[in-house]
Amino acid sequence: MAQINRDMSGVHWADTSKEAAFVEDRSLRKGDYDIAVVGGGYCGLSIALHAASAGQSVVLLEAGSVGCGASGRNGGLVVPHFPGGMTADDAGAVLGKAKGERLAQLVADGPQIVFDQIRALGIQCDAEQNGWIQPAHSEKAMQKVQRVYKSWTARGVEAEWLDAGAVADRTGATGYLGGWYRKSGGTINPYALALGLARAAVARGADIRQQTEVTGIRSDGVSKILHTNTGDIRARKVVIATNAYTPALYPSLAQSVIPVLLYHGFTRPLTADEQHKTLPTRVCFTDLRKSGGFSRYSADNRLIIGGAIFRPSNHRAYSFSHSRRRLAELFPHLKNIQIDSYWEGYCALTDAYLPAIQRLESNVYSVIGFSTRGVALAQTLGREVATFLCESKTEAEMPVRVGDIQPIAMQGVKTFLGGLAFPAYQLRDALRLT
Ligand SMILES: Cc1cc2nc3c(=O)[nH]c(=O)nc-3n(C[C@H](O)[C@H](O)[C@H](O)COP(=O)(O)OP(=O)(O)OC[C@H]3O[C@@H](n4cnc5c(N)ncnc54)[C@H](O)[C@@H]3O)c2cc1C
Question: Candidates 13, 37, 66, 71: which one to mutate for ligand 1, based on the most atoms within 8 Å of Cβ?
Fold first, then answer.
């Protein structure tokens, strides 16, 4: 299990959030609840928001502060696509055709749902819906990108194919052979989004308690009793949305995901001249490099850096040198640009790179495993889970697997090896094997 990092200092998103700090409303506290949500990231917040909107009494328990996990630390790219080269057919091969198509619909529609909700709730998170591109950095990536594009357009999804020149015109980046574009993608300040979701959930009656860590769950036959560092809480149903930070509340639960430590940071703000040459349309993009080929602006015109952490290294120094090289490769005019900030956070992978709803005992579920595509999907699946907990939808209607805990074989070994893999990723990318 990944260590919860309660400290948001140095995270650019927290330093620049236009959403006010989250304030708990103690008048909402009561003895027991219909639903208890464990974890105050996008998934838990979305469940709380939508279940409270449907009239359920909801308590959300967060060990740190809302958004202190991956939700406040991610890159803020809102992407209308599965991870990497995955297609709806690939998802269908894992989930069965009906669930695969349902999930594909949720993934394709996700950014529009998220941007619409941001507007409806008045969340001040610097939302920019300028589109997203998946460009191909190699011949091998080109084949995958073409397959992905065909899979989406065969399903009637509005997408545009871009040749090498069009990718270069829209991104200002060098070295891409082509790619596909969807205008529904975009960027947000992720921490501000978490704060805004919490504010909206409380406005709809959800009781959100921070610095409240769930340490155990037991049943008295009628209710679930959640033990926390601030006392016991009772609820009819419980959902655990703790991502890579998932504690061992149930045997093997923490082994059902692999925590991967990632970093992000920002360059200094770009000058007007540099902005003409760099993402001139303010589009964002994510390629298929395993060592991280992506870009976006912050609201104050800085360019993002990021990748996976190489554990044995001095994290910051190693990450900066990799990011400088990647920036020089994508945007040669930004060679040696100053990098101003750096922070780390965990994402959670499953074997299939897809989240699952796990049944831990009667009326207790977990929803974890959003990989690096959780900005939209953790919110949209959270909304689906709320309808399930409210009994408006069945398990079969959920767009992901619903079942017993599936621990990952050799999870400890894979987690350890994952922390050593980054140089191998860099080499494979350099040799155009990805
Ligand atoms: C560096 C990084 C970059 C990323 N970039 C992107 C991106 O650009 N686009 C994208 O789509 N996705 C991205 N992701 C993935 C995305 O951020 C996650 O998938 C998403 O935020 C997961 O949300 P969540 O609610 O499941 O988990 P989290 O936001 O991690 O929330 C889990 C919460 O559970 C709490 N918790 C844990 N244990 C307990 C307990 N016992 N009691 C109470 N609370 C507990 C934690 O404190 C934490 O706040 C990135 C992730 C990382 C780390």
Answer: 71
Q: Is 148 in the pocket of ligand 1 (CB under 6 A)?
A: no
Ligand 1 pocket, residue 265 CB under 6 Å: no
Chain centroid offset of residue 106 CA: 14
Ligand 1 within 6 A of 344 CB?
no
For the stretch 408-432, pLDDT in tens is: 999 999 999 999 999 999 999 999 9
CATH of 12-430, one of 3.50.50.60, 3.40.50.720, 3.40.190.10, 1.10.760.10: 3.50.50.60
Judged by DSSP in three states, 182 sits in strand
Give tens-digit pLDDT for 61-99.
Answer: 999 999 999 999 999 999 999 999 999 999 999 999 999
- Output the CA 41–ligand 1 centroid distance in Å: 6
At 150 the three-state DSSP class reads: helix
Tell whether ligand 1 has an atom less than 6 A from the beta carbon of residue 62.
yes
Residue that the structure tokens 């921490």 belong to: 191
pLDDT in tens, 140-174: 999 999 999 999 999 999 999 999 999 999 999 99
Of 375, 385, 322, 386, nearest to 347 by C-alpha is: 375
Residue 9's alpha-carbon distances to 73, 308, 328, in angstroms, are: 11, 20, 28
